[in-house]
Design a protein that fits this description.
Blueprint (H helix, E strand, L loop, with lengths): L5 H22 L3 H92 L3 H12 L19 H14 L3 E5 L3 H13 L3 E6 L2 H13 L6 E5 L2 E6 L2 E6 L10 E6 L14 H5 L3 E9 L5 H13 L2 E6 L5 E5 L5
Length: about 325
């Protein structure tokens, strides 16, 4: 090991001097001086060895501390790398989620754009069609008290005229309507005109059910049409839990000739109108007619597709700009 420090160099010089003096004393016959010099020399050598041992121990401790520091640094770097990997995976998942959300929103926006464009393209003739439909409807209820407005949340005049035509053609004995309001009043008038027809409307909103009941009373239609408050309950459809009218409110209705699906509202959940046919399929007689309103909307189109695949219904014809007519042509699958 090289002696690099001033103290170590001084000790080495002193040891060399003592060696020389002790050697001279021994050569000149001065044994006492030689022994004394040898003892001092041994002492300095021992001191030098102890100093070197101490420095080795200090160096060893310093090395261990350095090794510990290096290990901690390596561990910290590994932890940082793992953390970065986790954050990287999280950021990737977040990025994928955001991309999927953007795609969904873009598709929904595209759908709304198509619907808006379609509706705008019909503005030049739809108002005329609605007026024409009203002009054909009003003579059918001459002398009636003021009628509730059509359109908006209610069925359009064209759909109401189409419904009246279905009642006249099919002469159903029992009509079940999902949802109530203006259409219930017009169905009541159609039922009276045809004769032998019973209209039962389901309504999940108690206040709205009372309002429809009052309208039927004002028009003197309670003998042919009624509205029943049927709160939304959990139902199982195709293995999924959904919300639909309490079908227990139809316990006395065993056979349905005409089913009008105009509720529940879209705001109550996705595919809100899908359960109508699966839950009532056993009561739909062969050849029964189903009318679906708002058939241009994505949820309603999906419900129509499933009904055609699983419930023995076939799309027969459009009823109006918004509604379609289906018929049960075979037993449900």
């Amino acid at each position: 090991m090289a002696l690099a420090t001033p103290r170590q160099r001084a000790l080495a010089a002193l040891v060399a001097l003592l060696v020389v003096l002790t050697g001279l004393a021994a050569l000149t016959g001065r044994t006492g001086w030689a022994l004394a010099g040898l003892a001092v020399l041994l002492g300095y050598v021992a001191g030098l060895l102890l100093d070197l041992r101490h420095r080795q121990q200090v160096a060893a401790r310093s090395q261990r501390r350095l090794e510990g520091t290096v290990e901690q640094a390596v561990s910290s770097v590994a932890g940082l790398h793992h953390l970065l990997e986790q954050h990287g995976a999280g950021l990737t998942a977040l990025d994928d989620g955001l991309r999927a959300l953007v795609r969904e929103e873009a598709e929904a926006a595209a759908g709304r754009h198509r619907e808006t464009t379609h509706r705008l393209s019909r503005l030049d003739y739809e108002p005329v069609n609605e007026v024409q439909a009203l002009l054909q409807l009003l003579p059918k209820v001459q002398g009636a008290v003021p009628l509730p407005p059509v359109g908006g949340w209610a069925l359009s005049a064209g759909s109401l005229l189409g419904l009246w035509d279905v009642v006249e053609r099919e002469r159903p004995r029992t009509v079940v309507e999902c949802g109530s309001g203006t259409s219930t009043v017009w169905l009541g008038y159609a039922a009276r005109a045809v004769g032998g027809v019973r209209v039962v409307a389901l309504e999940h909103n108690a206040a709205y059910a009372e309002r429809t009941h009052a309208l039927l009373g004002e028009h003197g239609l309670l003998d042919v049409a009624e509205v029943r408050h049927a709160p939304l309950v959990d139902v199982e459809v195709d293995g999924a839990t959904m919300r639909w009218y309490d079908a227990g409110r139809l316990e006395d209705v065993s056979s349905i000739d005409l089913l009008v699906v105009d509720g529940p509202p879209k705001s109550t959940g996705p595919l809100a109108r899908l359960p109508a046919v699966p839950l009532l399929r056993e009561r739909l007689r062969p050849g029964a007619v189903v009318v679906m309103d708002d058939a241009h909307r994505p949820d309603e189109r999906e419900a129509l597709r499933r009904w055609s695949l699983s419930d023995g219904l076939e799309l027969e014809r459009p009823l109006s700009r918004d509604a379609v007519v289906l018929r049960r042509t075979s037993p449900s699958a």
